[in-house]
Amino acid sequence: VQDDVTLAIVAERLDKLANDHVRGVIFDGFPRTATQAVGLDALLEQRGQKIDAVIELAVPEEILVERMSGRRLCPNCGAAYNLAFQSTRQTGICDKCGSELVQRDDDMPIAIRKRLQLYNDLTKPLLDFYESRRVVTTVDGNQHVEIVQQTIVDAITASSINKEA
């Protein structure tokens, strides 16, 4: 999706949230480009807001490829599995409905490596953009999910979000 379209969608959503008296939002996977970051800054500035915290989940690329390529879906009931973390009672068969699990094309290792290259080229440079503002916290995402979750909560709690409230 083009940056201007993405920014228009975000602006519309921010307006709706403001009308609903929501005090803050969490963006997941946005902004992805420098143009989006600059555009987001402009949108937030118009509303008297700013980015208070950026969380970087750091995981070695080989681990990411292993995790992402382990995803399987049931085309019948929609159940999701990840072979890197769990197994089914019968290999390749959905535990809920007995259908054969499938792997999406974008979860193939070659597609994942291509997505990671796009991330490295377009999105990772944004860390410097936000590090200059001292709002980036890097979290080791190669830990147990509960530890990662708590580290993220701690980082958000320690950010200026709660100091201004």
Task: Explain what you see.
The protein is mainly alpha-helical. Helices cover 47% and strands 10% of the residues. The chain contains seven helices and four strands, in the order H-H-E-H-E-E-H-H-E-H-H. It has helices at residues 3-19, 34-46, 61-69, 109-123, 126-131, 145-158, 160-163, and strands at residues 54-58, 71-73, 80-82, 136-140. The strands form two sheets. Strands 1-4 form a two-stranded parallel sheet. A two-stranded antiparallel ribbon has the order 2-3. A hairpin with a 6-residue loop joins strand 2 and strand 3 (80-82). Helix 1 (3-19) packs parallel to helix 2 and helix 3 (61-69) crosses helix 4. The longest helix has 17 residues, at 3-19. It is globular and about 55 Å long. It starts with a helix and ends with a helix.
Topology:
Layout: H1 3-19, H2 34-46, E1 54-58, H3 61-69, E2 71-73, E3 80-82, H4 109-123, H5 126-131, E4 136-140, H6 145-158, H7 160-163
Parallel strand pairs: 1-4
Antiparallel strand pairs: 2-3
Strand content: 5-15%
Roughly what is the average pLDDT, rounded to an integer?
93
Gross morphology: globular
Question: How widely separated are the two ends?
Answer: 35 Å
Residues in helices, as a percent range: 40-55%
Q: Over all CA atoms, what is the radius of gyration?
A: 19 Å
The assigned structural class equals mainly alpha
Ranges where pLDDT stays below 50 over 5 or more residues in a row are none
